[in-house]
Amino acid sequence: MEKKLKVGLKTLFGTLPNIERYLHFAVLFWVLLQLLSSGLMHVHGDTELNQISDLAFIHIYSGLVLLPVSLIFATKVIMRRKIQDLYPWLSGHYQVIKEDAESLLKLELPEAKPSGLAATIEGLGILALILAVVTGSVWYLTVFTSGPSEWLLSIHKLSVTFIQVYFFGHALFALLHLVQWWRESSTS
Ligand code: HEM
Ligand code: HEM
To answer: Which of 38, 41, 44, 126 gets mutated to test ligand 1 (max ligand atoms within 8 A of its CB)?
Structure first.
């Protein structure tokens, strides 16, 4: 059972080249750390830099380091998969997304394919990740250079909603694919 789970996970993440697989794991655990640490901090729009607790600085500094890691991950994935694959809506290509949505309506998990629903959602996930790290970093840079900014903190808090939704939605689909692989390999 343990061995089968290992094979399943290897197959699931097998679509990613080695370097991107490591970067993906780093981003996955880092974002989880950001989500967990955000619940332990008390920074408000009018909080001065010297009032920020050490615990909050874990979220802040680890978020700042996540910025270059996210940019490298995003660049690697986009360069390999190309803009048309991850962002078909930019050029008005909705055909494959439509076909995948129809499969989902029939309760069938569509195969991941270029310009499809999974690819589009992954493309949006990359944007959500960049939005979260950039808005957090811009807020910090502003507090550091010119003092508290209620407005920028609200923008960060609103922006992170997208990465939260993506994180759990994308994980759920990964789990469903694992269950599907498990069933198919038990019957074959
Ligand atoms: C992917 C990266 C990040 C994620 C997933 C993330 C996630 C979150 C979440 C979920 C919250 C709570 C939102 C709420 O209370 O409504 C939050 C708040 C916050 N984040 Fe981030 N964050 C990230 C990056 C950053 C960065 C780079 C900085 C600064 C350099 C930062 C600074 C803050 C601050 C100051 C708060 C307010 C905390 C509070 O409510 O007391 N975050 N973040
Ligand atoms: C915020 C965190 C995450 C981001 C930004 C992210 C982003 C991505 C992206 C862009 C891809 C596509 C790479 C490619 O095929 O070229 C991918 C693939 C994958 N992700 Fe994530 N991911 C995150 C978290 C997770 C989590 C929590 C899981 C589940 C435990 C997961 C499971 C997978 C799997 C299995 C694949 C490979 C299969 C596929 O392409 O769907 N990811 N991820």
So the answer is: 38
